[in-house]
Specification:
The complex is a heterodimer of chains A (267) and B (309). In chain A, 37% of the residues lie in helices and 23% in strands. With 267 residues, chain A is of the alpha/beta class. Classes of the chains: A alpha/beta (267), B mainly alpha (309).
């Protein structure tokens, strides 16, 4: 796997959807191989922030760069390279429901495969491709599902498939949008521990958005709090003051208080 | 009670303010008016559908539909089967086979080639940056216009292909290619490329885009997305259209035989010309049976695809 992670940088980035300002002049730097958690209530702008780094959202003003390359200045081919190096685990997973697990996972490497190679991967995967997919599935603990149709799996299993797809991609940065919003607390800890371990093992940069502050403090050495499209604070967990804590916690708590049902963060 | 009243008032007010479509109201009124007028002014009452002569005609016609050897005598299986066997051996099987072959050749040609046009005509895919925000590069305007042109030309061509009826295509092609199965096959294929291309493009445009965008987001190309995500997601519905159009092709291959090539339609017309109504009726039934068989095959294939786990 990639030996070192990608360096992610936002400089005075604003994102506006019509009259709505999703991000307001945000600057953020994530070092190569660093693991950060984005915390904040639903609708704070966390998803938008993550989507800037693979060009799925375009900044209205400001600059997004990955490893010092400004995304807006890249040619289509260069942008494709950046995307091939950037894994994204979506809150809605975004798998193709009627493909088999192995077929969904091989799509992860499409950014680096020729048309012919990817057709072979999907239709007649070689023994070595199947082995590589199996290894990735082993890492998330569902290797026995290799040839099942993806929509036959449970929600938690499908989420592991989405993680496996991103791992198979061998990205240099992994962006995860609310990976634990739809799983129970026990599973949430397992998923976060897994993401953390995988990023440490492979040296990749990890950005995870969470609206659960306690989990973020438990797993991440750096917390970036986002509220109303602005960065509220950017600190180590133990450096957060009581006041900051209550301020963000009051908001996140409100978002989570529907019997532990996380609020929908679709935009 | 007071609160009930105030709620009632509020509801009434909301009801008065509800958005109402003028179009629906006016068109309903217009429709009622047209129905009333056509009932009063039309000549429903001046022509009689069921006068005596027509009844006699109908009775004679129904008599003629009974197999000739059986007319005026008790039903006998041996005689009926003998009659059936003779017609089938003479021309029934051949005509049935030809009709089936024409329709299958036509729909396979149309189905395969329409896939290319489907992808070109789908506005979500035929754009500078499918499923994600377009880049702002200096050539992106130009590229966007080029893609727009691709979609417009493809769609215009599809409209042209389906605007000309199969019958007219066949007529034109018969003049060029002479009497053989090919003019009919090509006529059906051309018309159905227009229909399948348009319908499939709509299906592709209406697919949920999140999964497709996620592939684009990890660097997949258009064709990779088309092959690995769009096709599997759209396939059940595309097959439904495919089989429905096949059914129409069988019907049209029957009818187009009347232009002179030997399919079911040719023999139906032939029997009609010789006033052999029993044989004509049998051939019509054969055509219907072919379509029912096709429907069965289509239902089985689609169920298999749906439940393929």
């Amino acid at each position: 796997m990639a030996a070192n992670g990608a360096r992610l940088l936002l400089r005075n980035v604003s994102v506006r959807y019509g009259a709505l300002t999703a991000l307001d002049s945000v600057s953020l730097e994530v070092q190569a191989g660093e693991a950060i958690a984005l915390v904040g209530p639903s609708g704070a702008g966390k998803t938008t922030l993550l989507k800037l780094f693979n060009g799925a959202v375009r900044p209205s003003t400001g600059e997004v760069s990955v490893d010092g390359r400004i995304l807006a200045a890249l040619s289509p081919a260069e942008l494709q390279q950046v995307r091939a190096d950037t894994g994204f685990i979506y809150q809605d997973l975004n798998l193709i429901p009627n493909l088999r697990v192995i077929q969904n996972i091989v799509t992860g490497r499409f950014g680096r495969r020729s048309l012919f190679g990817s057709a072979v991967d999907v239709l007649l995967p070689s023994r070595s491709t199947a082995r590589a997919v199996y290894r990735v599935l082993e890492q998330v603990g569902i290797e026995e599902k290799l040839y099942l149709r993806t929509d036959m799996l449970s929600g938690g299993q499908q989420q592991r498939v989405a993680i496996a797809r991103a791992l198979y991609q061998q990205p240099r940065a992994l962006l995860c949008d609310e990976p634990v919003a739809s799983v129970d607390p026990l599973r949430a800890r397992a998923v976060l521990a897994l993401l953390k371990k995988l990023s440490e093992d492979n040296g990749l940069t990890l950005c995870v958005s969470l609206h659960h502050l306690e989990l973020a403090k438990e797993f991440f050495p750096r917390l970036v709090a986002v509220r109303n499209g602005r960065i509220l604070f950017d600190k180590k967990p133990d450096a957060i003051t009581d006041q900051e804590y209550t301020e963000i916690y009051r908001l996140t708590h409100a978002a989570e208080n529907n019997n532990g049902e996380p609020e929908n963060t679709h935009q | 009670m007071d609160t009930d009243n105030s709620v009632n008032l509020a509801i009434e007010q909301l009801h008065r303010q509800r958005p109402r479509s003028r179009f629906v109201r006016y068109s309903v009124c217009l429709m009622l008016l047209v129905i009333a007028l056509s009932w009063l002014l039309g000549d429903f009452f001046t022509t009689d559908l069921f006068n005596g002569r027509r009844l006699q005609n109908l009775q004679r016609f129904l008599q003629e539909l009974i197999p000739y050897p059986l007319q005026g005598r008790a039903f006998d299986w041996a005689i009926a089967l003998d009659w059936l066997d003779k017609i089938l051996a003479d021309r029934g099987w051949q005509a049935l086979g030809t009709t089936l072959a024409i329709s299958v050749a036509a729909i396979v040609m149309a189905g395969c080639s329409s896939l290319v046009f489907t992808l070109l005509a789908a506005r979500t895919l035929s754009t500078t940056e499918p499923f994600l925000p377009a880049p702002l590069g200096k050539h992106s305007r130009f590229k966007q216009s080029a893609w727009w042109l691709v979609v417009a030309i493809t769609r215009l061509m599809l409209i042209f292909l389906r605007a000309i009826p199969e019958y007219v295509w066949a007529f034109l092609l018969l003049a060029v290619l002479g009497i053989s199965a090919w003019p009919i096959v090509l006529a059906l294929a051309l018309h159905n490329i227009g229909i399948l291309g348009k319908l499939s493009a709509e299906v592709v445009e209406n697919l949920p885009t999140a999964a497709l965008a996620s592939l684009r987001g990890l660097g997949a190309s258009r064709l990779q997305i088309a092959g690995a995500a769009i096709m599997p997601m759209a396939l059940p519905r595309l097959l439904m259209f495919f089989f429905y159009r096949w059914e129409t092709c069988v019907r049209e291959a029957t009818v187009l035989g009347m232009l002179g090539f030997v399919s079911l339609g040719f023999w139906i017309q032939d029997a009609r010309a010789r006033n052999v109504y029993d044989e004509m009726f049998l051939l019509i039934i054969l055509g219907a049976a072919l379509i029912m068989g096709g429907d069965l095959v289509s239902a089985i294939v689609r169920a298999l695809i749906r439940n393929n786990r």
